[in-house]
Amino acid sequence: MKTVEKQGKTVEEALELALKELKAKKDEVEVEVLEEGSRGLFGLLSKMARVRVTLKKKPEEKAVEFLTGLMKILKLDPVMNLVHEEDGMCRIEIKGKDMGILIGKHGATLNALQYLTGLVANKDGAGYKRIILDVEGYREKREKALKELALKIAKRVKETKKSIALEPMPPNERKIIHNALQGDERVKTHSEGEEPYRRVIVSLKYPPVK
Amino acid sequence: MIELVEYIAKALVDHPEEVAVNRVEGEQSVIIELKVHPDDMGKIIGKQGRIAKAIRTVVKAAAAKEGKRVIVEIL
């Protein structure tokens, strides 16, 4: 962990210097005031303010740390790659041998692991960051499979003219279904139920478009 | 398996020193008992048991590798 000690005429000034050296913002550090500093009398007996400033671990750093320890316990030795996405999300790509157990049925284990990692990463840390986990390109494969599923379901809804409820899915997967069918003129989608059992319903648009 | 539950629990709570994990061997399954500081119960169970469920999912996956049925009980 990176720590610096700085002094200045006031606490603010000392802190300013420390932040400059650490190249950090105020909410990314922990500040300990060592000496308040005082102006004294006519410049006599004046005391400099001193602060100790420590760089807090970023959420994504804590995420990788947590996962590294976890993999060790599971006796797995994957390669982890941290990717910063444009929209402020962080994606951790995990690759290696025996990664199947990290995915589980329909990604259940991966989603659970992602949820726990997010909690650990954002626990009393510096700022919130959404953490996405991916194992061996699973997310992309799943997205493709869900899009295909959406189209298949839409076709069946049109044929039978009956609504179809999909199995419960996490929010990101429901979004893929909604997006896939957004442009469809004959069906509409909405979600029903409470998390984690919320599911997408695909139904016919009324009145039917000719 | 004890190690895994302990590791995850300690990462989630505010009082990691008060995390206690115990293993009870059943006939067909292993029961892992997890105890935490009373103030940390929410951090280990979560809204509608969401965190507890996630812990169980991960532990189950790890246990499957060893061919055992593992039950995580929060006391």
Describe the overall structure.
The complex is a heterodimer of chains A (210) and B (75). Chain A has 210 residues and is of the alpha+beta class. Chain A has three domains: 3-55, no CATH class; 59-136, GMP Synthetase, Chain A, domain 3 (2-Layer Sandwich); 140-204, Ribosomal Protein S8, Chain: A, domain 1. Chain A is built from six helices and nine strands. A three-stranded antiparallel β-sheet of chain A has the order 1-3-2, with helices on one face. Chain A has a three-stranded mixed β-sheet with strand order 4-5-6. Chain A has a three-stranded antiparallel β-sheet with strand order 7-9-8. The longest helix of chain A is centred in the C-terminal third of the chain and has 23 residues, at 138-160. Chain A is elongated and about 90 Å long. The N and C termini of chain A lie far apart (65 Å). The model of chain A has no long low-confidence stretch (mean pLDDT 88). The mean pLDDT of chain B is 91. By secondary structure, chain B is of the alpha+beta class. Chain B has a three-stranded mixed β-sheet with strand order 1-2-3, with helices on one face. Chain B is 44% helix and 25% strand. Chain B has a single domain (1-74), classed as K homology (KH) domain (GMP Synthetase, Chain A, domain 3), CATH 3.30.300.20. Chain B has helices spanning 2-12, 41-45, 50-66, and strands spanning 20-25, 29-35, 69-74. The A-B interface holds A 66, 69-70, 73-74, 101-102, 104, 108-109, 111-113, 115-116, 119-120, 123, 194-196 and B 3-4, 7-8, 11-12, 48, 50-51, 53-55, 57-58, 60-62, 64-65. Chain A: Residues 140-206 form the R3H domain. Chain A: It is found in: Cytoplasm.
